[in-house]
Design goal:
Blueprint: H1 2-10, H2 22-29, H3 34-40, H4 45-52, H5 55-58, E1 60-64, H6 73-80, E2 90-95, H7 103-115, E3 120-127, H8 129-140, E4 150-155, H9 163-167, E5 186-190, E6 207-211, E7 221-224, E8 233-237, E9 242-244, E10 252-256, H10 260-270, E11 277-281, H11 285-293, E12 301-309, E13 313-322, E14 327-336, H12 342-353, H13 355-362, E15 364-371, H14 379-386, E16 395-400, H15 409-412, E17 428-433, H16 445-458, H17 461-465, E18 468-472, H18 475-483, E19 498-500
Parallel strand pairs: 1-2, 2-3, 3-4, 4-5, 5-6, 6-8, 7-9, 8-10, 10-11, 11-14, 12-15, 15-16, 16-17, 17-18
Antiparallel strand pairs: 12-13, 13-14, 18-19
Helix pairs in contact: 7-8, 11-13
InterPro entries: F-box-like_dom_sf, F-box_dom
Organism: Exidia glandulosa HHB12029
Pfam families: F-box-like (PF12937)
Length: about 500
C-alpha cells in the first residue's frame, strides 16, 4: 500500500480533503464497510484514491447491477486468482437487486464465489427473491466457509405491486455452509425467512439483525431462541413476525419500525425483566410501561438523556441503567433531519408523562444530560416539567461534545437556564467539556467565575455545606465522578478532574 499512498500524495493536492494526511484517512477507512468505501469513490479524486488504496477495498470483490460495463467472467477469474501466497482474504459484495434479466450472469458469479469460499471473510448478497433463493441454495449449500465472519443476505422487496417480491418466501436452506462456518459472528438478514430447523452455520452468531419490509405468514417462525445459543444482540425492524420461544436474558434486543400492537407483542416474546439491554424506537404507552416495570426491583438507577445525529435522522435517547444488575432500558424518539422538532419533542414528553416512567425518573440517583449536538430540544425543561419541576437525584452531570454547545453560561445565565432549585437533593454537579481543545480549569477562569456565582445564587445555604462542583475534560471520568464522589475512586487519576471551591473569590 506504500506506493499507492505516495501516488495519492502527489495528486490532488488542491483538494480540501488533502489537508488530512493519507494515514489519517486510512485510519478512518478502517471503521467503514466495503459499501461505504465504494460510495466514497464518488466524492472526489483525492478521496477516491485514498479509499481505493485501503486494504479492505484492495481485497474487495464488488459487482453491482448498475456497473457498466459489467466485468466479464474471465476478468473475475483473473482477479480471484491472486498470485500472492498466502492468497488474500476476500470481501464479497454482490448487489443485483431486481435485475431479473441477469440470472445467468448471477449464477456464474456465485459459482466463482463458491469456488473461493475458503478465502471469504465477509459476504453480502443482494438478490431478487424470485431467483436468489434458488441461486444461493444451488451455489452455496454445503460449501465450507472457514474464515467467514460477516454474512448479509438481502431479498429486496420493492413496491407493493411487484408480484414476485411479495409472493416469493425469502428462505435460505439450513444446509447453507453446513457447520463449516466456525467464525461467523455477524448476521444481517433482510426479508429472509428462517425455517424451524437448526442452522448449524449460525450457532456461533453473536449479533443478528432481522429486517423486514413486508409481512410474513403467521404460521412461519422467524426467530427461535433455542437455535441461537451464543447470541448477544438481536435487532428486529419492520412488521411483526411470529416468534417461537423466548429470548434468553443475555441478548440485547433492539426494536424499531413497528406499529403499537406489533411492538408490544415483539417485546413480550423477545424480552424478560432480566434481559440485559432493550431498546425501543418510538415506544407506545404500553411498551413504556412494560419496560419501566422491568426495573421495578432495581436498587440503584442512573438516567442518561442525550441527543444523537444520524445520517438521515436525529434521536433523543432516554436510558435507564440498573447499576447493580447491569440492565439497561433505552427509549428512543426519532425524527427526520428535515422535519420540525416539535412533534418529536411532544412524543418525548408523552413518554415522560407515563406514570411508570415518571416514578422511575424519581428513583434515579444520578442524571446525565449530554449536549453533544444542537438538538433544539430543551431536555432539562422537559424532564423537570414532567416531574412537576422536581427531581430527586443526588448528582447531575452535564457533558458537552461540541464547542457550540460548550457555552456553559447558556445553562446558568442564558435562555434555557438550568434551575437548580428544582433539584432539592442535589449534592454534586459535574461539568464535562470533551470537545477538542476544551479549556482547562486555568484557561476557563472567567467562565468558571461566572458559573460559581450562578451556582451559589441557585443553591440554598444548606445545600452549599456539602455541595461538590467538579470540572473535567474526560467523559469517562465525568460519569464516574457523577456516580460517586471522585475521592472514593481508587483508579480515577486525580489529574483527570478538578474540584472547584464554591467558596473561593469569584472575582
Amino acid at each position: 500500500m506504500g506506493s499507492s499512498i505516495s501516488r495519492i500524495r502527489r495528486s490532488s493536492t488542491d483538494s480540501p480533503a488533502s489537508c488530512l494526511p493519507v494515514e489519517i484517512w486510512q485510519a478512518i477507512f478502517d471503521q467503514l464497510s466495503i459499501s461505504d468505501l465504494v460510495t466514497l469513490l464518488r466524492v472526489s479524486r483525492y478521496i477516491s484514491g485514498a479509499a481505493s488504496a485501503h486494504d479492505t477495498y484492495c481485497r474487495a470483490f464488488i459487482i453491482r447491477a448498475d456497473q457498466r460495463p459489467l466485468p466479464s467472467l474471465d476478468q473475475l477469474r483473473t482477479r480471484l486468482a491472486s498470485p500472492k501466497e498466502p492468497k488474500p482474504l476476500l470481501c464479497v459484495d454482490i448487489s443485483f437487486g431486481h435485475a431479473y434479466d441477469m440470472a445467468p450472469y448471477t449464477d456464474s458469479v456465485l459459482a466463482l464465489v463458491a469456488e473461493h469460499m475458503h478465502r471469504v471473510e465477509c459476504l453480502k448478497l443482494d438478490l431478487p427473491p424470485s431467483g436468489g433463493v434458488q441461486q444461493i441454495r444451488t451455489m452455496l449449500d454445503g460449501k465450507p466457509a472457514p474464515l467467514l465472519r460477516s454474512l448479509t443476505i438481502i431479498y429486496r422487496a420493492c413496491h407493493a405491486y411487484c408480484f414476485p417480491c411479495w409472493t416469493t418466501p425469502g428462505k435460505i436452506s439450513p444446509s447453507l455452509f453446513q457447520d463449516q462456518a466456525p467464525k461467523l459472528r455477524d448476521l444481517q438478514l433482510h426479508n429472509v425467512v428462517l425455517r424451524k430447523e437448526v442452522y448449524p452455520a449460525f450457532i456461533h452468531a453473536r449479533e443478528l439483525r432481522l429486517f423486514f419490509d413486508k409481512d410474513q405468514p403467521a404460521d412461519t417462525p422467524i426467530f427461535q431462541a433455542s437455535h441461537w445459543p451464543k447470541l448477544q444482540t438481536l435487532h428486529v425492524r419492520g412488521p411483526y413476525w411470529n416468534y417461537e420461544g423466548r429470548a434468553t436474558p443475555n441478548p440485547g434486543v433492539t426494536i424499531s419500525n413497528m406499529d403499537r400492537e406489533d411492538q408490544e407483542r415483539a417485546l413480550a416474546h423477545l424480552t424478560t425483566p432480566m434481559s440485559k439491554y432493550v431498546a425501543v424506537t418510538d415506544p407506545s404507552t404500553e411498551t413504556s410501561k412494560t419496560l419501566s416495570k422491568h426495573l421495578d426491583d432495581s436498587k440503584t438507577i442512573y438516567l442518561t438523556v442525550r441527543t444523537m445525529q444520524l445520517p438521515n435522522c436525529r434521536q433523543i435517547h432516554l436510558e435507564f441503567e440498573d447499576a447493580l444488575e447491569a440492565r439497561r432500558r433505552l427509549f428512543v424518539t426519532e425524527w427526520d433531519i428535515l422535519e420540525d422538532v416539535k412533534p418529536a419533542a411532544a412524543q418525548f414528553r408523552d413518554i415522560l408523562a407515563v406514570e411508570d416512567i415518571n416514578g422511575l425518573i424519581q428513583r434515579c440517583s444520578v442524571v446525565l444530560l449530554d449536549y453533544d449536538i444542537e438538538s433544539q430540544v430543551d431536555i432539562f425543561s422537559l424532564l423537570t416539567q414532567s416531574q412537576n419541576y422536581r427531581l430527586s437525584c443526588e448528582a447531575l452531570c452535564l457533558t458537552f461534545g461540541s464547542l457550540a454547545e460548550g457555552s456553559l453560561l447558556s445553562l446558568f445565565a442564558g435562555h434555557r437556564e438550568l434551575r437548580l432549585d428544582v433539584l432539592p437533593a442535589l449534592r454534586r454537579l459535574v461539568i464535562c467539556c470533551y470537545y477538542p481543545n476544551a479549556p482547562s480549569v486555568d484557561e476557563a477562569t472567567s467562565t468558571l467565575s461566572i458559573l460559581l456565582r450562578a451556582v451559589r445564587k441557585k443553591l440554598s445555604p444548606e445545600q452549599l455545606k456539602d455541595f461538590e462542583l467538579i470540572y473535567t475534560r474526560n467523559a469517562n471520568a465525568a460519569i464516574q465522578c457523577a456516580r460517586a464522589p471522585p475521592r472514593t475512586h481508587p483508579n480515577l487519576p486525580s489529574s483527570s478532574w478538578t474540584r472547584i471551591d464554591l467558596h473561593m473569590n469569584a472575582g
